[in-house]
Design a protein that fits this description.
mainly alpha; hpI Integrase, Chain A; 2 domains; three-stranded antiparallel β-sheet; 56% helix; globular
Length: 329
Amino acid sequence: MSTLAPTLQAFFTDRLARQRQASGHTIAAYRDALKLLLVFTEQRTGKSPSDVDIKDLDAPLIGAFLNHLETDRGNSVRTRNARLAAIHSLFRYAALRHPEDAAVIQRVLAIPPKRFDRALITYLTEEEITALLAAPDRSTWTGRRDHALLMLACRTGLRATELTHLTVGDVHLGTGAHVSCLGKGRKQRITPLTATTVRVLDTWLAERGRMPADPLFITRRGGQLSRDALERRVAKYAATAAKSCPTLREKKVSPHVLRHSAAMALLRAGVDSSVIALWLGHESVATVQVYIHADLALKERALARTAPQDVTPGRYQPPDAMLDFLDGL
């Protein structure tokens, strides 16, 4: 009898679903990773997935699978590491049930995640946000919905899934106006709303209706707006806004870029990193450091504070137009 099949089934039903109460997104991600692994194993060993043993999934095969993800499937290093994390989680569970395969399991668990270069994040300036918010045609129902959606995304920094899963009852526009959501890791959090956002949402709710359990943002047919639809709407309005704000042409705007933009606005306003982490629903304050790295103006202000007192702070300015020309060569 295969040693993997019952372990794999118990991993999903007992470990993930019952013990960890993992979200549907986590279960789906682990499922996809392990399905890919089993298909790859069948191609390499000739064994059907139901007949694969734990000892068949040794470190050389897992290493070959990870290389396959990058070279043949074109996955990024981040995706490769996410697949490896799913495999590690399964093997840590298998170690408790199959001590006879401890040597194979430990060698797989010793495979490290791959290092990768971290690019600076993309975010929108206040001028670009203004242009984006002006892009929807608010004379139409769809335009008013999308304007409210973009406003909420830019001012709260909610994740795409959090935005699309909001209900009418999650929005509170009275004293202490805020929006409530169930975020990543099943963490419940509330995010305050600006006065402008409150006015926009109040107008939208008056048109949308106020049944608490209904989705806040719906399609023409009354269904919940999907994540794919949200991404298409953001890309469409970014292209429209680029006509009046040319700097948007240089940026690939997505819902996550709007999340970064909200974080950068808080950082530039002097909000403490720990507060920003709570605002965005980050597990660690260290995650906020990516925004500090991306903000050149913030670094320049820090540099100005450390400059000698007898030196005027600021960037170097050539004293002559000809020197300026030569410096630009």
